[in-house]
Design goal:
heterodimer; A: 81 residues; alpha+beta; Translation Initiation Factor IF3; 4-stranded mixed β-sheet; B: alpha/beta; 2 domains; 7-stranded mixed β-sheet; 3-stranded antiparallel β-sheet; 14 helices; globular
């Protein structure tokens, strides 16, 4: 797990308080509307996302950049395909 | 004459719902075409409901009732924001679903401030401003009161909260479909509504929440309602609420005009025919079809039962609380003494009511009051003094 700080993003998706499997469904929908090379920030308080989202990125051909922990988790995904 | 507790489901609403009991009975979450078609219908209804209150479709979550919408607003915001603060403000005349949600949170170490109201049931905006603290995360003040019909100065109250960075929720179950309700005009962050008061079916309600604000779900389950409310959707109910919303937009102006005429006839008639009857709630800023009175020296329950024998259904207060035979907290809050509050009677009309019915009510009501007062020692004492 790569921890990062103040990473820039092109769009942000707030999934705090929302339960599994929304942390996999909503980024999938949102990233469809983004351009290649753009970065999506995903805010979540769901621990399972820390394993699931990197795996999801690998499976769907996107780059998982890393994670920042504040009052919630912030996960950063770069659209590759 | 008790449409605050329920309204008749419109014929077009019933017809719109029927195919979703048998022809399109499928589960909206299934991947085959029946499921996806039903899912699309749900989204169309979400759009209809959102248009009724000037919201965006994605800002609507369907619930099982107005009470659940109130629970989700209050507990959902409180639990999502508890790291920011644990103070909530509500008024003393809220519906039980708001008061008891706040009481529940009190048991979880939240602090609740109950804001008093004036003799008409209005919250004083300056008072609200004074009780907001840095710990306050939510203010919930109803748009219109179901027992006394008073309509709050909601935009003014909501503006204060917006300026102080506090979320504002309003229970609009009594007002949606009876007066114009637009979330942008009201400037609210959350708003509850229900099918029951809208000519829609029972068992369906909705919560408006502004701009994807964080809400802790109360019912955990699957991906329904964007993960905010688990459980297979009540598809016929949602379709019914959507249709009722569509019709409510079309009918609102005519309905308001009609109800204002009926209310004027009823209120003037009661003042003329029955002495010692006090109109409760605000005289002007009130729901168009709402007439509530405290009639001295009678027992409200006795009056309701007497009128029932004449085919007139009315109420003593809110349908949810009247069976408890307890003095109405709403009437106590507006300063009505308990002995007078006992004579509470509430008439709430709908556009299916006619002026002839109002005249019939006036005739039977004055007879019923005279009969009950003839048996009342309090009345005898009052007229002899």
């Amino acid at each position: 797990m790569k921890f990062i700080k103040n990473h820039p993003s092109d769009d942000s998706l707030d999934l705090v308080c929302r339960m599994c499997p929304l942390h996999l469904l909503e980024p999938g929908e949102r990233i469809k509307c983004m351009k290649k090379g753009q970065v999506l920030e995903v805010l979540t308080d769901y621990d399972g996302a820390l394993e699931d989202l990197p795996e999801w990125c690998h499976k769907h051909g996107h780059q998982f950049i890393g994670i920042e922990e504040e009052d919630c988790y912030k996960l950063y995904i770069k659209k590759v395909k | 004459m008790d449409h605050a507790s329920a309204t008749p489901v419109k014929k077009q609403v019933i017809e719109s719902m029927i195919p979703y009991f048998d022809q399109y009975f499928g589960n909206p979450s299934t991947v085959y075409d029946m499921g996806s078609k039903i899912k699309k219908v749900i989204e169309e209804q979400r759009s209809n409901v959102s248009q009724l209150i000037g919201a965006k479709p994605e800002e609507i979550v369907f619930t099982s009732s107005g009470a659940e919408a109130n629970n989700l607003a209050i507990k959902g915001v409180a639990l999502a924001r508890k790291k920011k603060g644990k103070h909530i403000i509500i008024s003393t005349i809220e519906h039980h679903s708001v008061i008891n949600s706040a009481r529940f949170l009190e048991r979880m170490d939240f602090e609740i401030t109950f804001l008093p109201v004036d003799k008409y049931g209005m919250v004083n905006p300056a008072h609200l401003s004074r009780v907001i603290t840095p710990e306050t995360v939510l203010v919930s003040i109803m748009h219109a009161n179901n027992e006394i019909g008073t309509i709050q100065a909601t935009p003014e109250l909501a503006d204060i909260c917006r300026e102080k960075g506090v979320l504002f929720h309003t229970d609009a179950v009594a007002s949606v479909g009876n007066i114009p309700v637009d979330v942008n005009v009201l400037n609210v962050d959350l708003l509850s509504l229900s099918g029951v008061s809208l000519g829609g079916p029972k068992g369906i309600g909705a919560l408006y929440f502004r701009n994807n604000l964080r809400l802790m779900p109360l019912i955990h389950g699957g991906i329904q309602e964007m993960g905010r409310r688990g459980g297979t959707e009540n598809v016929p109910g949602i379709v019914g609420l959507g249709k009722a919303s569509e019709l409510a937009v079309e009918e609102l102006t005519d309905k308001m005009n009609h109800l204002q005429k009926l209310r004027k006839c009823l209120v003037d008639g009661i003042h003329e025919k029955i002495g010692h009857a006090k109109l409760t709630g605000h005289p002007e800023k009130r729901l168009p079809g709402h007439a509530s009175f405290c009639i001295e020296a009678i027992e409200g329950e006795s009056l309701i039962y007497t009128l029932t024998h004449e085919g007139i259904y009315s109420n003593t207060g809110s349908a949810c609380a009247s069976k408890a035979l307890k003095t109405s907290p709403v009437l106590m809050s507006i300063g009505i003494p308990p002995d007078i509050a006992q004579g509470s009677v509430v008439f709430t009309m709908n556009n299916n009511n006619r002026i002839e019915e109002v005249k019939y009510v006036l005739e039977k009501l004055s007879i019923a009051v005279a009969k009950l007062r003839a048996l009342s020692p309090i009345w005898r004492k009052k007229i002899s003094s």
